[in-house]
Amino acid sequence: MSKSKLRLFSQMLSLIDRSVVRKAIQQHDSDKYSKGINTWTHFVSMIFMQITELTSLRDISNGLMSATGNLNHLGITKPPRKSSMSYINKHRTFEVFQDIYFKLLDRMEPSLQRQRMYARNLKRKIFIMDASIIPLCHSLFDWAKFRTRKGAVKLHAVLDYDTGLPSYAFLSDGKKHEINVARNTDFPAESVIVVDRAYVDFNWLNKSDSTGVFFVTRLKANADIKVVTFPKNRPDQN
What we know:
Blueprint: H1 3-14, H2 18-28, H3 39-51, H4 57-65, H5 82-91, H6 95-108, H7 111-122, E1 126-136, E2 151-160, E3 165-173, H8 178-182, E4 192-194, H9 202-210, E5 214-216
Parallel strand pairs: 1-4, 4-5
Antiparallel strand pairs: 1-2, 2-3
């Protein structure tokens, strides 16, 4: 790892509140049986893997070994070995990293706290469903059918409003309509789906309603709507 990359990585880690990490470690007692790799070293190694797009434990170990002598900038004393990382990945609970993630997310993205407040007031699980076109070069990706001279794939995703994280994702060809994916997606009863007008399909909405799922959307401009009202003195009210 070059000195410039190491410096950048160190600056990224400096944004992490170490007190949050320490509290999570104490709560889960995750440094017990650490086999020489404490939770912070494990944490740094996994972040290093993600930002450098490594695919093996050997690459992580070799990459951090290349920074020997400068690892103190990362808060670790020695690079983890491949065998030790394999053991720790198997035996250390994932929950410590899960807690670290969500606590850091709350601090770094305060708008999520407001979202959770609204979600708690509603007392229902809220999901946001949408799809996005990802353009591709048609001459290189001729399988990505979209238009005559354009290629693309479409990412269909469901976001959890409470956490801001995807709870479902599906990649299709660019021509696949959003509603065709929505019809095969299940949501828990009492939850709320928020969608745009591309998902206005009355059969699907009726199916969702019959399974106890609520929905929020906008009607299409050309929707043929007839409002039906009941008389005040209906027979079943007598």
